[in-house]
Amino acid sequence: MNVFHDAANQVEFDSITQWKKEGKPVVGYTCSYAPAEIFHAADILPYRLRGIETDGMEVGDTYFGPFICSFPKCILQLAGKGKFSFLDGAIITPGCDGMRRLDECWRKAGEDINGIVPDYFYYFDVPHKSENHGMAWYVEEIKELIRSIESHFKVKITNDKISAAISEFNKGRRLLAEIENLRTRDDVVVSGTDVFAATVAGTVMPRDEYTKELKKWATALKKRKTSLSKDKHRVMLVGSISDEIDLFELIENTGKAIIVGENLCFGIRYEGNEIKEDGDPVAALAEHYLGASVCPRMYGKYKERLAMLKERIVRSQAQGVIMQNIRFCDLHGAENALFERDLEAMGIPCLRIEREYGPHIDIGRMKMRINAFLERMESSEKRAAASAMSAEVSVSA
Amino acid sequence: MNIVAGFDVGSLTSKAVIMKNGKIIGSHIIKSKPRPKDSADAALAGALADAGISREDIKYCIGTGYGREKIEFVDELVSEIKCHGKGARWMMPTAETVIDIGGQDCKTMRIDKDGNIGRFSTNDKCASGTGRFLEVMAKVLNVDIDELGKLSAKAKDPITLASTCTVWAQADVIKYINSGVPIEDIGAGINTAMAGRVAILVNALKPEGDILMTGGVAKNIGVVSTLEKLIGKRIKRARKADPQIAGAIGAALLSMEKMAS
Amino acid sequence: MRPEIKEYNYDWLMGKTLKAAAHVPMGTKKETELTYRYIPYYKNIAKTFIDAGDPGVQALKMMSRYYENILTAKEQGKKICATTFCNSPVILYAMDIVPVTFEMLTAIGAMIWKRGMFDYMDFCCEVGMPETSCSSQRGALGAILGGLSEKIDLVICDTPGVCDTNANAFAFASEYLNKPFFQLNYPSSIGDDRSQKYHIDDYKEMIKFAEQHTGKKLDYDRLAEALAEVDKQDAMIADLEDMLMLKPTPVPPMFNLVLYAGRFCFSGRREYTELLESMVKSAKANAAAGISGLKNGEEKLRMFMCYIDHYTLDVNFNHFLEDRGIAHVGSILTRNFRDNNKYVEDMPGSAYGIDTSSPDAMLDTIAQMNARLPMVRSIRGPYDKKGMWLEESLVCAKMYDADCVVYNGTPGCRNTWGMVKPFARDMEKHGYPTHIMYDDAFDDRVESWEATRERLDEFFKIRGLL
User: Fold this and answer.
1) A 227-256 → C contacts, CB under 8 A
2) Residue (of C124, C118, C125, C85) closest to C101 by Cα position
3) Are A245 and A9 spatial neighbours (Cβ–Cβ below 8 Å)?
4) What CA–CA distance (Å, rounded) separates A159 from C424?
5) For chain C, first and last CA: distance in Å?
6) How many Å apart are CA C112 and CA C105, to the nearest integer?
């Protein structure tokens, strides 16, 4: 487990140093719509860019305007401070407006601060619709990305290599799905914090090493007996992008809650699903990454996302949902309101909070709200139990 | 003797309430000190003096508010929202919606007939919907914070204030003062801006039943009356106790429940 | 929302106000002056338009007509479609669908009403939209979500890929009101065959969607007529653009606003043609006399707005320009990128033409035209890439001989706030004093107009421009 926490809590960690020592490149990417398998197929380490370890914002605020989410600003800040100096490349994706402007802001910061823009800097266009020509566009984008990697890094990415990468990634996906299953049981033996750390680690660690470690951990978890969910509220965490292990800790350290599921940009929502291993591998990647419409940037797919969330709430027996959005994230902010409307109507308590990202997280305020929410869940659970009991009494009478 | 205490150590003020058999026998409000522990000590000392008892007489004590984790002598910590809900219900047993505006945030909540919290929401980060906003503005206007509320009724042509940001609003207020706009009109604009921010939160909660306002800002009649207009509903005033100590009352009531169980 | 606001149908309120305003100048000068005494709240805004002469009066009539169409849509058996300002209404009109453009309606309300659109904007937040989302939709949308407007039947937005907060507002509206939703999605590039094909495919699906939800077929003959009208309108726009380049420009600042407002509301319709005819006539008269379009006759400064204008009460921004002798040489909203404009000469491949020879040619035309509407054209990709915001702004600033460049938007504009700082720096590097306004074009509560004005004055003074 420590290996996952090490990877999830540090921007640069042992495996990366080791990878670089072997003379192999690392390419950063910003968005869950980027097919990491392509890089793996070229023996390049795909590294999901993070915002942790930021301790100021002078670089971020120099290029980004004031009304922008703090996540891309943190990435820029880290880049400006040389924390991503191990990168040989970066690809920017229009996941959202804030994120896509990282392209210009990073390049412009590079005009002022030497050496912070990796040699390979690529803009990867992702459409907002997955039907017909949207999917076709995305497939072409992947093919263009492949050509560009091949030409820059002097490698050959064959279909066989992509298929092998898909199959390697799928191993991890299956293991994460097994762990996800453990979280649905009455007695949950693993904390949400640990599962999330393991998921985040999967976006930055060399995949072979990751699969091996994950297998070990999953085997150990299956033998665990001690329940961590006894007398705790089962909650789900959804909303804006987060790679903050401390956000999970903040909730679970109240001692009153266990996170039994999350639907975040870093997280299980992708990783739990396998990619088709037969047929055209590029088409399979496209179907997986674009086809699922898992986040509100895919407009007009709210009902699909609500259905998915409901299904996961039922499966994980979550009793309440914490919905967060980073300030200026209009997409998740508005969608959270719709989720709240529809889930509360089903009797599922929801907490909707707007917050800052990472180093700016307002711990006092977050704690106050989360505690109050857990107290609210407590009373609603008590009421539910009481009404269930009285129903039983009336039936037996 | 069933004597219990409740603390609400906030960012602007700290409050202590001592209760005996469900009645308040002592309370005290002080301006918060840099260290929460000192604030709690001072508030307690004041409340003890008010009640004419000593610290040893207190059987159970619950703390809430921002500084709650730093108070050493409390037996238990409870969230502010729960305490405010509890206190509000005690102050007005028919209240179903509570608006509490404290120094650093604004909370609105729905409570059921048993005093349980239902949906709630709080404002975000920015100080413009909080007591701090009024405090800063009162300072700029050079009026007492308690006077600020009364300016609304005297205003003839209230200014419209850029309400999104305390810092910018402050600059606007200074500008209005310099250009000779009557202080009543500026004060009214400040109260309206404040009420506007709070109204969004309240309306989002779809208020029902009797609405009670607690927290220090409940004493500002300018804000309260504008807010009533904005939400189209009457806001009731609790006469049983000072609305500013609702959180501390709630904490004391929860202490009593704890003793009883 | 405060209860008294809920007593009125917002569309009706605005529609009747505009209709009355359009009637004011029909009497004698004395009668008009007398009428002003009875409309103290609307006097300033009505006078601003009426004093602009026939073009101003035509503009009032046009806006009144726009509301009239919305208010009578249902009795005429027409469906109402919520759509974005940068989505050309031509196809919708050709299908007998009445467009409701949130941004236009928000701007109108903000300019006319003393209390602004605050109550409606805040209502959107009450039902869950973040307060950080763009005010330009939240105004009109608040009235719609609150059930205070004519009911919309379908939603077609065309900002996915360009502006998240805009697209998000439309997606939210569709979900909240349970109305069918379609998005025209824009890739990050323009002018190449691949993106053009994408636009056409998108358009075909949009037509299918609109036909399905309105029960009406797209009539290509009507579309051809509408495009012929657009062709006529484009020629007049190009005339006005040419005159904007003159020094001093004979085009009054106000013309900018109505030029694009008309295009967003009535492209391809007679109402807009009449407005343009009047504007061209008036500007030509000024040009022939060699005088500035500014009221005091002296052009002291030429300002290029690289993004949008300021739309709060009484068109205060317009008065500000007039008072200081500042010529407005256009904003991102002014330019249409038709191939008969001079500025497109410096941007090869940026323009569209009109071809009505076949249904396919018309679809191609529409797709080309729509791809070049403001915002969706030049801020879709990285701002410093070919054909994007920087190139467009530099070409326009040079072509119109601007003395300075001013950015104005809304805090909701994630898209431009994501890069406006480096953009402004680049403009400065090219020798253009560039000012970033931190206000909200539609909401005076973010920064009061007085503060905004002071900041602008400060900029002009410090940079030695005025």
Assistant:
1) none
2) C85
3) yes
4) 45
5) 43
6) 11
> What span, in angstroms and rounded, lies between the C-alpha atoms of B26 and B49?
8
Beta pairing class for C80-83 and C98-101: parallel
Q: What is the pLDDT of residues C163-211, one digit of tens each?
A: 999 999 999 999 999 999 999 999 999 999 999 999 999 999 999 999 9
d(CA A90, CA C438): 32
Six-digit token string for B24: 């308040």
Q: Does B206 touch chain A (CB under 8 A)?
A: no
**What's the complex ipTM?**
0.96
Please count the CA atoms within 13 angstroms of the CA of C416 that sit on its side-chain side: 24
B118 interfaces chain A, CB cutoff of 8 Å: yes
pLDDT tier at C13, thresholds 50, 70, 90: very high
State whether residue A58 sits within 8 Å of chain C by CB: no
Which residue is closest to B231 within chain C, CA to CA? C2
Name every residue in B having a CB less than 8 A away from some CB of C: 160-164, 168, 171-172, 175, 193, 196, 199-200, 203-204, 229-232
> Is residue C418 one of the residues assigned to a domain?
no
Neighbours of chain C (3+ CB pairs under 8 A): A, B
Please name the residues in contact with B46: beta carbons below 8 A apart, sequence gap of 6 or more: B16, B28, B29, B30
Residue whose tokens read 């969608």: A335
- Domain limits for position C154: 3-216
User: How many structural domains comprise chain C?
Assistant: 1
The number of folded domains in chain B is 2
Mutate which of B119, B197, B201 to disrupt the A interface (most A C-beta within 10 Å)?
A: B119
Contact C201 A108 (CB under 8 A): no
Q: How many CB atoms lie within 10 A of CB B94?
A: 10
H-helix segments, chain A: 2-9, 14-21, 37-41, 58-63, 70-80, 97-100, 102-112, 132-153, 159-182, 192-201, 207-223, 245-252, 268-271, 281-289, 302-316, 330-345, 363-396
Number of C-beta neighbours around residue A42 at 10 A? 23
User: So what's the pLDDT on residue B49?
Assistant: 96
Helix (H), strand (E) counts: chain B:
8, 10
Per-residue model confidence as pLDDT tens digits over C200-215: 999 999 999 999 999 9
Mean pLDDT, residues C394-408 taken together: 97
| Residues 14-43 in B contacting A (C-alpha not used; CB under 8 Å) | none
Fold exhibited by the domain A16-157: Rossmann fold (3.40.50)
Q: Which residues contact A59 (CB under 8 A, 6 or more apart)?
A: A76, A77, A79, A80, A81, A109, A113
Residues of A in contact with C127 (CB under 8 A): 337
C-alpha distances out from residue A257 to A239, A317, A377, Å: 18, 13, 10
Cα separation, A244 vs A129, in Å, equals: 29
Claim to verify: residue B152 and residue B205 sit in the same structural domain: yes
pLDDT > 70: what percent of chain B?
95
Domain match, B23 and B106 both: no
Give the C-alpha distances (Å, rounded to integers) separating B87 from A167, B207, B234: 59, 18, 20
By residue range, what is the domain housing residue B10?
A: 3-81+245-260
Q: What spatial distance separates the first Cα and last Cα of chain B, rounded to whole Å?
A: 16
A396 has pLDDT over 60: no
Assigned token pair, C418: 């994501």
Q: Six-digit token pair at A74?
A: 């943190």
